[in-house]
């Protein structure tokens, strides 16, 4: 039984509510800060897509699920999850060394590690200052007079990680690539942070990053929207026709599966001018190209079936952009920008090789806070 069947939409509303996002925020920021510190300490260029996958995986495990695992355990979990994802769409041929067999083995290993983390979780929850997604799922099930089995918990956990993994890594990579391509956009982000009192003498003011002032950063919102318009991580989604209808003279019978294309919608919509240009100002209050009609801009799908985690995803991207603008120097490590492919999600063919340089002077403070708030072994 999957998470979507087991648990109601009301439960997910709690997981991604304003209050929940507010409590996740400082933990997400620390995970991002620690990752950028590691990237900048590497003498060689990093593979941004690969490291963004590691970053989004770490965020899901340590923040969304509240697991306290060592760095060694995290590396093992990430490697196993990668094997699971890489073989997810293998042909169902159960032979030695087949992708299917590798995927099954990775799934079993992953579930064993997750079960260990779940069983240890109550021992680590004393003094926690927030309820993570797994806490909310378990508490909501109890409120409804049921209790999730260990198997349901493991499957729910894997689904939450999966939901926060590939698409977030794709969007994070696209964000970094566009900030590299458009240094004037990066400088305007810095100007907005300075104007809002969040950036002083090149440093992000400690303790000032809250959900309300992040939402107030209008140009940042435009940048994230434009990244998701031009580089939507997934191409589209499926829906089932609830009743027979007609579209452009073609009848679609009730019960048929229908696929809609997000990328084609963004590319062909008449509301967007010069669709191939990276132009965050198209989402400004003055222009508001996305306000000219429904379903022209839908990076997370549309209607009541839109992505439930879209607020968490955009919050993550906003914090990443803020940290990149305020604490990092980075440059392309190749002569040209790589070609972008769209399968299974949007990503550069070479992963995007980038050299990161030193962060601010608060590295020791970042590491200490990480250990305190996330229980990480860094």
UniProtKB/TrEMBL annotation:
Keywords: Endoplasmic reticulum, Heme, Iron, Lipid metabolism, Membrane, Metal-binding, Microsome, Monooxygenase, Oxidoreductase
Membrane topology: Peripheral membrane protein
Keyword Endoplasmic reticulum: yes
Cofactor: heme
InterPro entries attached to this UniProt entry: Cyt_P450, Cyt_P450_CS, Cyt_P450_E_grp-IV, Cyt_P450_sf
Catalytic reaction list: all-trans-retinoate + reduced [NADPH--hemoprotein reductase] + O2 = all-trans-18-hydroxyretinoate + oxidized [NADPH--hemoprotein reductase] + H2O + H(+); all-trans-retinoate + reduced [NADPH--hemoprotein reductase] + O2 = all-trans-4-hydroxyretinoate + oxidized [NADPH--hemoprotein reductase] + H2O + H(+)
Gene Ontology molecular functions: heme binding; iron ion binding; monooxygenase activity; oxidoreductase activity, acting on paired donors, with incorporation or reduction of molecular oxygen
One Gene Ontology cellular component: endoplasmic reticulum membrane
Lineage: superkingdom: Eukaryota
Any GO BP annotation: embryonic cranial skeleton morphogenesis
UniProt keyword Metal-binding, yes or no: yes
Subcellular location: Endoplasmic reticulum membrane; Microsome membrane
UniProt: heme binding residues: 307
Family to which this protein belongs: Belongs to the cytochrome P450 family.
Protein name in the entry: Cytochrome P450 26B1
UniProt gene name: cyp26b1
């Amino acid at each position: 039984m999957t998470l979507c069947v087991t648990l109601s939409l009301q439960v997910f509303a709690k997981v991604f509510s304003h209050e929940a996002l507010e409590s996740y925020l400082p933990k997400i920021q620390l995970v991002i800060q620690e990752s950028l510190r590691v990237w900048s300490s590497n003498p060689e260029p990093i593979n941004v897509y690969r490291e963004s996958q590691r970053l989004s995986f770490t965020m899901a495990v340590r923040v969304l699920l509240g697991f306290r695992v060592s760095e060694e355990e995290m590396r093992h979990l990430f490697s196993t999850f990668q094997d699971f994802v890489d073989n997810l769409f293998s042909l169902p041929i159960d032979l030695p060394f087949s992708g299917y067999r590798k995927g099954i083995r990775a799934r079993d290993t992953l579930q064993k590690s997750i079960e260990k983390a779940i069983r240890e979780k109550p021992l680590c929850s004393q003094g926690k200052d927030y309820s993570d997604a797994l806490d909310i799922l378990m508490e909501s099930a109890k409120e409804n007079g049921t209790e999730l089995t260990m198997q349901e918990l493991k499957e729910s956990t894997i689904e939450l990680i999966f939901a926060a993994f590939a698409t977030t890594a794709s969007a994070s990579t696209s964000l970094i690539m566009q900030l590299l391509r458009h240094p004037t956009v990066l400088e305007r982000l810095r100007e907005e942070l300075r104007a809002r009192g969040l950036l002083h003498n090149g440093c992000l003011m400690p303790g000032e990053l809250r959900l309300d002032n992040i939402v107030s950063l209008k140009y940042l919102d435009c940048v994230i929207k434009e990244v998701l318009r031009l580089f939507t991580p997934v191409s589209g989604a499926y829906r089932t026709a609830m009743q027979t209808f007609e579209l452009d003279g073609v009848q679609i019978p009730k019960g048929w599966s229908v696929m809609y294309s997000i990328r084609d919608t963004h590319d062909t919509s008449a509301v967007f001018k010069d669709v191939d240009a990276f132009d965050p100002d198209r989402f400004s209050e003055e222009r508001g190209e996305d306000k000219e009609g429904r379903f022209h801009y839908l990076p997370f799908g549309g209607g009541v079936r839109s992505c439930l985690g879209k607020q968490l995803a955009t919050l993550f991207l906003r914090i990443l952009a803020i940290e990149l603008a305020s604490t990092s120097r980075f440059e392309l490590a190749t002569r040209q920008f790589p070609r972008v492919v769209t399968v299974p999600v949007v990503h550069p063919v070479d992963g995007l090789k980038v050299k990161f340089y030193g962060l601010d002077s608060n590295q020791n403070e970042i590491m200490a806070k990480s250990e305190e708030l996330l229980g990480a072994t860094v």
